[in-house]
Amino acid sequence: MAAKDTEKYAVPGLERGLRILSEFSRQTPTLTAPELARRLSVPRTTIFRLLVTLENLGFVERLNNGRDYQLGTAVLRLGFEYLASLSITELSRPILERLRDDTGYSSNLVIRDRRDIVYIQKVAPASVFSSSVHIGTRLPAHATVLGRVLLSHHSFEQLQALYPEERLQAHGPNTPATTHDLYTLLQKDKARGYVMEEGFFETNISTIAAPVHDESGVVVAALGLTVPNLRIPEAERERLIERVKNAARSLSVSLNYSGAYA
Protein backbone atom coordinates (compact mmCIF):
# COMPACT_ATOMS: atom_id res chain seq x y z
CA MET A 1 0.00 0.00 0.00
CA ALA A 2 1.37 3.45 -0.95
CA ALA A 3 2.34 5.97 1.72
CA LYS A 4 -0.55 8.26 0.76
CA ASP A 5 -2.99 5.39 1.19
CA THR A 6 -1.65 4.51 4.64
CA GLU A 7 -2.06 8.14 5.72
CA LYS A 8 -5.57 8.20 4.27
CA TYR A 9 -6.72 5.16 6.24
CA ALA A 10 -4.80 5.88 9.47
CA VAL A 11 -6.87 6.44 12.62
CA PRO A 12 -5.33 9.32 14.65
CA GLY A 13 -7.08 8.38 17.89
CA LEU A 14 -5.85 4.80 17.74
CA GLU A 15 -2.35 5.98 16.90
CA ARG A 16 -2.31 8.33 19.88
CA GLY A 17 -3.62 5.63 22.19
CA LEU A 18 -0.86 3.25 21.13
CA ARG A 19 1.73 5.99 21.50
CA ILE A 20 0.54 6.51 25.07
CA LEU A 21 1.09 2.84 25.84
CA SER A 22 4.55 3.00 24.26
CA GLU A 23 5.63 5.79 26.62
CA PHE A 24 5.60 3.44 29.62
CA SER A 25 8.85 1.58 30.18
CA ARG A 26 11.10 0.13 32.86
CA GLN A 27 12.55 3.61 33.34
CA THR A 28 9.13 5.28 33.46
CA PRO A 29 6.65 2.70 34.81
CA THR A 30 4.22 5.45 35.88
CA LEU A 31 3.23 8.68 34.14
CA THR A 32 0.70 11.44 34.73
CA ALA A 33 -1.64 12.88 32.11
CA PRO A 34 0.27 16.21 31.97
CA GLU A 35 3.54 14.32 31.47
CA LEU A 36 2.04 12.33 28.61
CA ALA A 37 0.64 15.50 27.05
CA ARG A 38 4.14 17.05 27.08
CA ARG A 39 5.83 13.93 25.76
CA LEU A 40 3.40 13.50 22.86
CA SER A 41 2.69 17.19 22.21
CA VAL A 42 -1.04 16.46 22.49
CA PRO A 43 -3.61 18.64 24.32
CA ARG A 44 -4.31 17.55 27.88
CA THR A 45 -8.03 17.17 27.24
CA THR A 46 -7.28 14.70 24.44
CA ILE A 47 -4.87 12.78 26.67
CA PHE A 48 -7.47 12.56 29.45
CA ARG A 49 -10.09 11.19 27.03
CA LEU A 50 -7.66 8.62 25.68
CA LEU A 51 -6.61 7.58 29.19
CA VAL A 52 -10.23 7.11 30.24
CA THR A 53 -10.81 4.88 27.21
CA LEU A 54 -7.65 2.87 27.84
CA GLU A 55 -8.52 2.57 31.52
CA ASN A 56 -12.01 1.28 30.72
CA LEU A 57 -10.47 -1.39 28.51
CA GLY A 58 -7.88 -2.35 31.13
CA PHE A 59 -4.82 -1.19 29.19
CA VAL A 60 -3.86 1.38 31.84
CA GLU A 61 -4.59 1.60 35.56
CA ARG A 62 -4.78 4.68 37.77
CA LEU A 63 -2.81 4.50 41.00
CA ASN A 64 -4.31 5.32 44.39
CA ASN A 65 -3.00 8.89 44.29
CA GLY A 66 -5.38 9.56 41.38
CA ARG A 67 -2.66 11.20 39.26
CA ASP A 68 -0.29 8.48 38.10
CA TYR A 69 -1.06 5.81 35.53
CA GLN A 70 0.64 2.51 34.86
CA LEU A 71 0.15 -0.23 32.28
CA GLY A 72 -2.83 -2.47 33.00
CA THR A 73 -3.30 -6.21 32.91
CA ALA A 74 -4.78 -6.12 29.40
CA VAL A 75 -1.35 -5.16 28.04
CA LEU A 76 0.27 -8.06 29.87
CA ARG A 77 -2.40 -10.43 28.61
CA LEU A 78 -1.82 -9.36 25.02
CA GLY A 79 1.93 -9.63 25.47
CA PHE A 80 1.84 -13.14 26.85
CA GLU A 81 -0.69 -14.25 24.23
CA TYR A 82 1.68 -12.95 21.56
CA LEU A 83 4.66 -14.75 23.07
CA ALA A 84 2.64 -17.95 23.38
CA SER A 85 1.62 -17.69 19.73
CA LEU A 86 5.22 -17.82 18.54
CA SER A 87 6.02 -21.41 17.60
CA ILE A 88 9.66 -20.76 18.41
CA THR A 89 8.82 -20.43 22.11
CA GLU A 90 7.26 -23.88 22.16
CA LEU A 91 10.04 -25.42 20.09
CA SER A 92 12.74 -23.86 22.24
CA ARG A 93 11.47 -25.05 25.62
CA PRO A 94 12.80 -28.64 25.56
CA ILE A 95 16.06 -27.48 23.98
CA LEU A 96 16.59 -24.86 26.68
CA GLU A 97 15.70 -27.39 29.37
CA ARG A 98 18.33 -29.81 28.06
CA LEU A 99 20.89 -27.02 27.96
CA ARG A 100 20.09 -26.06 31.54
CA ASP A 101 20.25 -29.65 32.75
CA ASP A 102 23.51 -30.26 30.92
CA THR A 103 25.25 -27.13 32.19
CA GLY A 104 23.54 -26.20 35.43
CA TYR A 105 23.01 -22.61 34.24
CA SER A 106 20.01 -20.57 33.12
CA SER A 107 19.24 -20.70 29.41
CA ASN A 108 17.35 -17.99 27.54
CA LEU A 109 15.84 -17.14 24.19
CA VAL A 110 15.40 -13.56 23.01
CA ILE A 111 14.11 -11.78 19.92
CA ARG A 112 14.68 -8.20 18.79
CA ASP A 113 12.07 -5.46 18.79
CA ARG A 114 13.69 -2.48 17.10
CA ARG A 115 16.48 -1.39 19.46
CA ASP A 116 15.55 -3.76 22.30
CA ILE A 117 15.89 -7.44 22.96
CA VAL A 118 12.86 -9.16 24.47
CA TYR A 119 13.10 -12.35 26.52
CA ILE A 120 10.50 -14.80 25.18
CA GLN A 121 11.66 -17.96 26.96
CA LYS A 122 13.73 -18.69 30.05
CA VAL A 123 14.62 -21.89 31.87
CA ALA A 124 16.42 -21.54 35.19
CA PRO A 125 17.92 -24.13 37.55
CA ALA A 126 16.98 -24.38 41.21
CA SER A 127 19.41 -21.89 42.71
CA VAL A 128 19.77 -19.20 45.33
CA PHE A 129 20.85 -16.90 42.52
CA SER A 130 17.96 -14.57 41.72
CA SER A 131 17.89 -12.93 38.32
CA SER A 132 15.97 -9.75 37.51
CA VAL A 133 15.44 -11.07 33.98
CA HIS A 134 12.13 -12.76 33.22
CA ILE A 135 9.94 -13.45 30.19
CA GLY A 136 9.00 -10.08 28.69
CA THR A 137 12.08 -8.25 30.00
CA ARG A 138 13.50 -5.70 27.58
CA LEU A 139 17.15 -4.69 27.42
CA PRO A 140 19.12 -2.50 24.97
CA ALA A 141 20.33 -4.57 22.02
CA HIS A 142 23.55 -2.66 21.40
CA ALA A 143 24.72 -3.05 25.01
CA THR A 144 24.01 -6.77 25.55
CA VAL A 145 25.60 -10.02 24.40
CA LEU A 146 22.30 -11.45 23.17
CA GLY A 147 21.61 -8.20 21.36
CA ARG A 148 24.96 -8.38 19.61
CA VAL A 149 24.03 -11.81 18.29
CA LEU A 150 20.77 -10.41 16.88
CA LEU A 151 22.54 -7.43 15.31
CA SER A 152 25.58 -9.30 14.02
CA HIS A 153 24.17 -9.89 10.53
CA HIS A 154 23.26 -6.24 9.95
CA SER A 155 25.11 -4.17 7.39
CA PHE A 156 26.67 -0.89 8.46
CA GLU A 157 23.90 0.98 6.63
CA GLN A 158 21.24 -0.97 8.52
CA LEU A 159 22.93 -0.20 11.82
CA GLN A 160 23.14 3.49 10.95
CA ALA A 161 19.42 3.54 10.21
CA LEU A 162 18.74 1.85 13.56
CA TYR A 163 21.20 4.03 15.49
CA PRO A 164 21.42 7.42 13.75
CA GLU A 165 22.76 9.24 16.82
CA GLU A 166 26.41 10.29 16.99
CA ARG A 167 27.07 8.40 20.23
CA LEU A 168 25.27 5.34 21.55
CA GLN A 169 23.70 5.37 24.99
CA ALA A 170 26.14 3.90 27.50
CA HIS A 171 25.02 1.13 29.83
CA GLY A 172 28.39 0.54 31.41
CA PRO A 173 32.07 0.72 30.46
CA ASN A 174 31.80 -2.02 27.82
CA THR A 175 29.05 -0.46 25.68
CA PRO A 176 30.30 0.45 22.18
CA ALA A 177 30.57 4.23 21.95
CA THR A 178 29.53 4.68 18.32
CA THR A 179 27.76 2.80 15.54
CA HIS A 180 31.14 2.25 13.89
CA ASP A 181 32.50 0.69 17.09
CA LEU A 182 29.43 -1.51 17.33
CA TYR A 183 29.75 -2.62 13.71
CA THR A 184 33.41 -3.55 14.20
CA LEU A 185 32.46 -5.64 17.22
CA LEU A 186 29.58 -7.29 15.37
CA GLN A 187 31.76 -8.29 12.43
CA LYS A 188 34.01 -10.23 14.80
CA ASP A 189 30.94 -11.80 16.43
CA LYS A 190 29.56 -12.88 13.07
CA ALA A 191 32.85 -14.43 11.96
CA ARG A 192 33.14 -16.33 15.26
CA GLY A 193 29.58 -17.64 15.12
CA TYR A 194 28.91 -17.02 18.80
CA VAL A 195 29.57 -14.43 21.51
CA MET A 196 31.14 -15.05 24.91
CA GLU A 197 31.58 -12.13 27.27
CA GLU A 198 32.32 -11.82 30.96
CA GLY A 199 30.74 -8.87 32.75
CA PHE A 200 29.76 -7.14 29.52
CA PHE A 201 26.35 -5.75 30.55
CA GLU A 202 26.33 -6.59 34.25
CA THR A 203 29.66 -6.91 36.02
CA ASN A 204 28.72 -10.09 37.89
CA ILE A 205 27.14 -11.89 34.92
CA SER A 206 28.81 -13.75 32.06
CA THR A 207 27.01 -14.84 28.90
CA ILE A 208 27.52 -17.20 25.97
CA ALA A 209 25.12 -16.79 23.05
CA ALA A 210 24.60 -18.02 19.49
CA PRO A 211 22.22 -17.14 16.64
CA VAL A 212 19.04 -19.01 15.73
CA HIS A 213 18.17 -19.03 12.01
CA ASP A 214 14.85 -19.58 10.31
CA GLU A 215 14.21 -21.45 7.07
CA SER A 216 15.35 -18.51 4.94
CA GLY A 217 18.59 -18.10 6.90
CA VAL A 218 17.55 -14.96 8.76
CA VAL A 219 18.68 -14.65 12.38
CA VAL A 220 15.35 -14.61 14.20
CA ALA A 221 16.48 -15.17 17.78
CA ALA A 222 19.47 -15.47 20.05
CA LEU A 223 19.94 -18.40 22.41
CA GLY A 224 22.08 -17.83 25.45
CA LEU A 225 23.49 -19.27 28.65
CA THR A 226 23.80 -17.09 31.76
CA VAL A 227 26.66 -17.79 34.18
CA PRO A 228 26.21 -15.91 37.49
CA ASN A 229 29.91 -15.14 37.87
CA LEU A 230 32.31 -12.47 36.75
CA ARG A 231 34.38 -15.21 35.10
CA ILE A 232 33.44 -18.39 33.27
CA PRO A 233 35.61 -21.23 34.62
CA GLU A 234 38.44 -21.81 32.16
CA ALA A 235 37.98 -25.57 32.27
CA GLU A 236 34.31 -25.22 31.28
CA ARG A 237 34.53 -22.65 28.52
CA GLU A 238 34.89 -24.84 25.43
CA ARG A 239 32.27 -27.29 26.65
CA LEU A 240 29.77 -24.52 27.41
CA ILE A 241 30.38 -22.81 24.07
CA GLU A 242 29.76 -26.06 22.20
CA ARG A 243 26.60 -26.75 24.20
CA VAL A 244 25.20 -23.31 23.38
CA LYS A 245 26.10 -23.59 19.70
CA ASN A 246 24.56 -27.06 19.48
CA ALA A 247 21.37 -25.86 21.17
CA ALA A 248 21.10 -22.96 18.73
CA ARG A 249 21.65 -25.34 15.82
CA SER A 250 18.97 -27.70 17.12
CA LEU A 251 16.45 -24.89 17.35
CA SER A 252 17.41 -23.63 13.89
CA VAL A 253 16.89 -27.11 12.44
CA SER A 254 13.48 -27.18 14.13
CA LEU A 255 12.71 -24.01 12.17
CA ASN A 256 13.75 -25.80 8.94
CA TYR A 257 17.11 -24.07 8.59
CA SER A 258 19.51 -26.15 6.52
CA GLY A 259 22.36 -23.73 5.98
CA ALA A 260 25.96 -23.77 7.17
CA TYR A 261 27.24 -22.62 10.55
CA ALA A 262 30.33 -20.62 11.44
From TrEMBL:
Pfam family, one: HTH_IclR
Keyword annotations: DNA-binding, Transcription, Transcription regulation
InterPro entries referenced in this protein's UniProt entry, alphabetically: GAF-like_dom_sf (IPR029016), HTH_MetabolicPath_Reg (IPR050707), Tscrpt_reg_IclR_C (IPR014757), Tscrpt_reg_IclR_N (IPR005471), WH-like_DNA-bd_sf (IPR036388), WH_DNA-bd_sf (IPR036390)
UniProt key word DNA-binding: yes
SMART domains tied to this protein: HTH_ICLR
Positions of the HTH iclR-type domain: 11-73
Domain of life (superkingdom): Bacteria
Domain IclR-ED: 74-257
PANTHER family with a match to the protein in the record: HELIX-TURN-HELIX TRANSCRIPTIONAL REGULATOR, ICLR FAMILY, TRANSCRIPTIONAL REGULATOR
Protein name, as recorded: IclR family transcriptional regulator
Taxonomic source organism: Neopusillimonas maritima
